[in-house]
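quick one if you have a minute, typing this from the bus. below you get a single protein, a line of residues and a line of whole numbers that encode the local backbone shape. could you go over both lines and see whether the tokens make sense for that sequence. anything you notice is useful, everything is just below.
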Amino acid sequence: MEAGKTVLFVESVAGIAGDMFAAACVDSGAVSAKALQDIPGLLGFCDVLVDISKTKRAQVAATHIDVRGHDEAWVQFLERHPSIGQLLPRSGEAGTPARDPDAHHLHLPLDVIEAVFSESKLAAETVEIARSLYREMARAEAKAHGIDPSLVHFHEIGHIDSIVDAAMAAVCLSTVAPDRVYASPVKLGRGNIRIAHGVYPVPPPASAFLCEGFPVDPVPEGIRRKNVELSTPTGLAILKILRPEFIEGWPKGLVDSVGYGAGSMDLGTVPNVTRVVLLKSRGGEEPLNLPYEREEIAEIICNLDDQSPERSAWILQKAMERGALDAWITPIVGKKNRPAHTFSILVRLEQEGDFIDWILRTSSTFGVRRRRWTKYQLARRREARKTPHGTVHYKLGMTTDGEVIKEKPEFEDLARIWEQFPEFEP
């Protein structure tokens, strides 16, 4: 990574939650408090407030976020967004939306929450990140219940405060836009907690599935609570979409700022916080001592499930004509088990902005992702060789010291010869 690139380190001091991550970003100075306080209005939730305050956890100064609303906020929201109301499941009683009488909120399927984000006034990149968070949680819930993700109905994380938490996290991620992400092993908790489905062990089933691929740590010794959940589904989904490199200790770099996001519980002598650290790389990763050419490149990625194959093929062709280093399409299965494709383009760093703008204007996607790669490649040289059937051009791959490692004849020359001499082998 080049010097000056932004590195984000997410440290699970006492777990991670969506509001704790967002509070830590505000505490670090990377995101303004106003940017988060504006979110309920941008989502269309009236009389819902994001209260941001300074507090202490085990004598550590931190920022705390509390999303405050009332039970009728959903009713008011649906009155202003009847198209979203039509997506809600019906209870069968006078055609009213299904409700949980204990939790005072609607049981929300994924498409309803995605519609809330899509019809909001949030920036397109923020909307895509927020939707991705809920898709990760839906996949985990689906695995936990043995159902299709489209049939998942959110309970606790269907509350307005959880939706706002996800939007806050999305704003933070789009604002910080780290070039590289690291994280500490995750602290999950222990014992049992009560959720909408009953009393379950920590982590609850969906959270456990979100942890697949994560290194985890035990509860810190200073926490005496027998039953305690330290990491929430939203917090774990943040790590899921960040795809960090998990490390012990802090990463290498020049520390720019540090922020502490406080949870609501008092954990005694252990500070109930998530810590974020923003660093500037000092030349970043040490280059491998290999005799090959090295280049920093960018990959631009988007998922497409509503675009014709003909247009996708045309975009792939045009991407190469515009100077992409490489481009390819990968078949995937998207939400609701719909066939889809992941479109990937490799470009030079100076081409990155141009290609992002071009893809958003040309394809059907509403958002793209980007990541940086270090590319090691052979130095190349072309060489013409005479054969009994004409000249064949070869591409030679070499080390930077001039050692030829491999060679390959150009297909066009071989195809021309094979038309008359199909037995020819170079």
User: Anything to note?
Assistant: The mean pLDDT is 87.
